[in-house]
Design a protein that fits this description.
Rossmann fold, alpha/beta, 2 domains, 42% helix, 286 residues, three-stranded parallel beta sheet, 10 helices
Length: 286
């Protein structure tokens, strides 16, 4: 029977540790870590994500600054907001909730955020540190880093393993593939243009999937005893499902993340982790 990799429980453990650490840091420094979340427009999913992030900040004792702007905001206005947040001493982390309206240049906005406050880990400087394996020096992208924390918590060894990353987005696929390379796995990256996807996934000791295609990965596409990390999330007939056909696949593999309750909760936990890390680096405390 497969081990169910419980990201929800692990995320709760990380948050509890952070809550204690934040109390200690506030006593030592005289202030709490501060996170600014910028939401542009009225995307319903984005509103839910932002609400969850702000609620978690409140739970842990992180100062949360919410900035809501209409979708009609100009590039210049949004850039001005980022400049202001970069200069604020009470703000340690800046997050612009993606996606933003199409008339705005999201990469330019990400590039404007100070790498020291880029708690999403999307700035090219932090992405470069992912490639170089400088996990401790940079702020790592939250979802991929959450996956690495799951591997660590469950003692899943990557060295010498065949790892396959299905999906090559800048947010998940590319950084996670690089992280696994730096943990000495042999990594193949597959995507929509990959010919014969099954020929890759069948050989994977570690299979990570982040495509947003419901139940893309079937039982006959996985190796017996593999570890499967399902990062995708979709809603089908009112039910939240992942990229992996969980019920069919779980009987064949050694470990698997559920959806929901797997990687998702780890993303917010690692955002809080990054905010505290950014705070400590800016204040020069351990």
């Amino acid at each position: 029977m497969a081990t169910i990799l419980d990201g929800k429980a692990l995320a709760q453990k990380i948050k509890e540790e952070l809550r204690d650490e934040i109390e200690r840091l506030e006593e030592a420094v005289g202030r709490r870590p501060g996170l600014a979340v910028v939401l542009v427009g009225d995307d319903p999913a984005s509103k839910i994500y932002v609400k969850n992030k702000e609620r978690t900040c409140e739970e842990l004792g992180i100062k949360s600054v919410g900035i809501r702007k209409p979708s009609s905001i100009t590039q210049e206005e949004l850039e001005s907001i980022i400049d202001d947040l970069n200069g604020r001493d009470d703000i340690d982390g800046i997050l612009v909730q993606l996606p933003i309206p199409e008339h705005l240049d999201s990469q330019k906005i990400i590039n404007l955020i100070s790498p020291l406050k880029d708690v999403d880990g999307f700035h090219p400087v932090n992405m470069g540190k992912v490639v170089l394996g400088l996990f401790d020096e940079g702020l790592m992208p939250c979802t991929p880093y959450g996956v690495i924390k799951i591997f660590e918590a469950y003692g899943i060894e990557l060295q010498g393993k065949n790892a396959v990353m299905v999906g090559h987005s800048n947010i998940v696929g590319k950084p996670l593939a690089n992280m696994m390379v730096n943990l000495n796995a042999t990594v193949s990256v597959c995507h929509v243009y990959t010919r014969d996807l099954k020929s890759y996934t069948k050989e994977a000791d570690i299979l990570c999937v982040a495509t947003g295609v419901p139940h893309l990965i079937k039982e006959d596409m996985v190796k017996e005893g593999a570890v499967v990390i399902d990062i995708g999330i979709s809603r089908v007939n009112g039910k939240i499902v992942g990229d992996v056909d969980f019920e069919k696949v779980k009987g064949k593999v050694s470990a698997i993340t559920p959806v929901p309750g797997g990687v998702g909760p780890m993303t917010i936990a690692m955002l809080m982790y990054n905010t505290v890390k950014a705070f400590k680096r800016r204040e020069g405390v351990d």
